[in-house]
Write a structure and sequence with these properties.
three-stranded antiparallel beta sheet, elongated, Nucleotidyltransferase, domain 5, 15% strand, 316 residues
Length: 316
């Protein structure tokens, strides 16, 4: 199925509710056969007047909407507003604030804020595979502070002092893929456990000389080389310029677009920037990036209680 290639095409196309429905059917069920989200039956018909689907297999949830089983479930906001919101967050290089989205699609700021967090939930990747995995792969690893300290520093103890959150990042030079996550501290066990989780054995790892990376080569899983940033930023092929460029993008987004991000929500904003970075480049245009984001909506849920932290435990 053809999909819009530009924002103006998306707004015009999705202003028609039938187009929204047909588009989401094509995204959710590639072969065009609608399946009941409860029992998986293909015996499904569309009730035009009710704008609902009806499963002919008897069970308590025979009637269902297109939103059931997706990030849109239980949302009173129509798809003609949801889909442009997906487009904007997927393609705006520095994100879009809830105030701007509210003005753009005609919802309240609170609704826009919740919508954006739901979309960020969709952007979470399973990360079932490791980056690297061979001696040919070079992986840059670094951490940065968000809020409190505007620059990367290695003077004194690295840790959360009530004003700063720490984000750890990894970038492979082979595919340009980035992994990044909020961590509770920059101790050796924390950093190296994350490396073992995300980086394939045999990779060449490049870091600065922070003590948290000491003895990484002793595991015999990686070739570890360091650069002393007090002396130089590049030592041949050993540098962390790639991941530091990602930090610049992340901080520009946090300071310029979102301004005041609570530590509890920081990981979601990091996820957003990682997703956009990993799906950027000449090979993927805006329309394809939008379609990829939508392809991840099935099986994702985020309640208001979870996003406000009333039921979910805080990570640190």
């Amino acid at each position: 199925m053809e999909y819009p290639k530009t924002l103006i095409e998306a707004i015009q196309y999705f202003s028609n509710p039938d187009n929204c429905r047909q588009f989401m059917v094509a995204v959710r069920w590639a072969d065009g056969v609608v399946l009941c989200p409860t029992c998986g039956s293909e015996k499904v018909s569309y009730l035009e007047n009710a704008k609902l689907y009806f499963c002919k297999v008897k069970h308590p949830k025979q009637k269902f909407s297109l939103k059931v089983g997706t990030i849109f479930e239980d949302s009173p906001i129509a798809l003609d507003k949801w889909l442009p919101a997906f487009w904007l967050l997927s393609n705006c290089k520095n994100g879009i604030s809830s105030y701007e989205l509210a003005r753009a699609i005609g919802v309240t700021q609170k609704s826009a804020w919740f919508m954006l967090h739901r979309i960020r939930e969709v952007m979470k990747d399973a990360n079932t595979f490791q980056i690297g995995n061979s001696p040919k792969n070079q992986v840059e690893i670094d951490e940065t502070y968000i809020s409190g300290l505007p620059k990367n520093r290695h003077i004194g103890q690295r840790g959360v002092d009530g004003r700063k959150s720490i984000v750890m990042g990894m970038k492979t030079r082979t595919t340009r893929e980035v992994r990044a996550m909020v961590i509770p501290d920059a101790k050796r066990t924390t950093l190296q456990d994350k490396i073992l989780e995300h980086v394939g054995w045999g990779s060449h790892i490049y870091t600065d000389q922070w003590v948290g990376y000491d003895k990484l080569s002793a595991t015999n899983h990686f070739v570890h080389k360091t650069v002393n940033h007090m002396v130089e930023h590049v030592k041949g092929e050993v540098h962390t310029n790639g991941i530091e460029n990602f930090w610049a993008l992340l901080k520009r987004t946090l300071k310029g677009t979102y301004v005041a991000v609570e530590p509890f929500h920081l990981d979601a904003y990091v996820t957003e920037q990682v997703w956009r970075f990993n799906n950027s480049g000449k090979k993927m245009n805006d329309g394809a990036r939008f379609k990829k984001a939508l392809s991840q909506v099935v099986g994702k849920r985020l309640t208001l209680a979870e996003v406000t932290g009333k039921t979910a435990e805080r990570p640190f």
